[in-house]
Amino acid sequence: MDTITAIILAIVEGITEFIPVSSTGHMILTTRLLGFEEQDNLMKTFEIVIQLGAILAIALIYWRRILNLLGIGRKKERAGVMPRSRLNLIHVLLGIVPALAVAFFARDFIKSLFGASTVLWALVAGGILMIVAEWVNKRKVRITAHELDDLSYGQALAIGLYQIISVLWPGFSRSGSTISGGMLSGVSYKASADFSFLIAIPIMCAASGYELLDSYKDITGDTIGIFAIGFLVSFVVAYLVVILFMRLIQKIRLTHFAIYRFLLAAFFWLFVMR
């Protein structure tokens, strides 16, 4: 792997990790385009490292919320100044435990599903779910959680259960399934995105850390430079993408991402897979 390849992959990771287009799917398709084997050990380790860069970016964006959840640095509540946050660690646990449990017990099965053709079908299926979620959220569901602190335990659990789909189906998109799950459960688009990004930190740390236990030996004096470049580029790109996404969230609908997913799947099916 050369520097240009590392930068390309890190940019793809940074752009796609937190928006509902599937970073796993994009990485599988990109590595295929670049000519890498899907089972290449060095590539797998590199993907873990750049994913950690993206995690650091989201942690930096939500650092105040994280400290509040941990009870660190929280100011004393004063009337009319700073109401105590109602989102707590129970919400986070409900949002991540179902997916972590499935990932732990079905790890080998999930790995057997990784492949370009699986991703293409997942891109389409995930896009359909996103369109349905947006339509239902606008017309059929009464929104009870407009902000992150309005989230109920039941809604947090529903989002966690929807996240299982992305665990079992590579390419479906973790953020796509969680944001859609939130919107189908009466959570606003913005609050669903906020919660999706927030629970990404522990679940991605757990998944990446577990995988890194098998792959850390690939980080050597010869590869550390490439890994460092990938980590830094992924961090910067992911930070900018999430900030931009949250600022434009009222203009960029789930349907727009769904259409992109359909076009990407069609492109690869017609011009790459054949």
Automatic annotation (TrEMBL):
Coiled-coil ranges from the UniProt annotation: none
Swiss-Prot/TrEMBL keywords: Antibiotic resistance, Cell membrane, Cell shape, Cell wall biogenesis/degradation, Hydrolase, Kinase, Membrane, Peptidoglycan synthesis, Transferase, Transmembrane, Transmembrane helix
EC annotation from Swiss-Prot or TrEMBL: 3.6.1.27
Membrane topology summary: Multi-pass membrane protein
Pfam family membership, one: BacA
Reaction catalysis annotation: di-trans,octa-cis-undecaprenyl diphosphate + H2O = di-trans,octa-cis-undecaprenyl phosphate + phosphate + H(+)
Chief location of this protein within or outside the cell: membrane
Leader sequence segment: none
Family note: Belongs to the UppP family.
HAMAP family associated with the record: Undec_diphosphatase
Record's function text: Catalyzes the dephosphorylation of undecaprenyl diphosphate (UPP). Confers resistance to bacitracin.
Protein's name according to its UniProt entry: Undecaprenyl-diphosphatase
Originating species: Paenibacillus sabinae T27
Gene this chain is encoded by: uppP
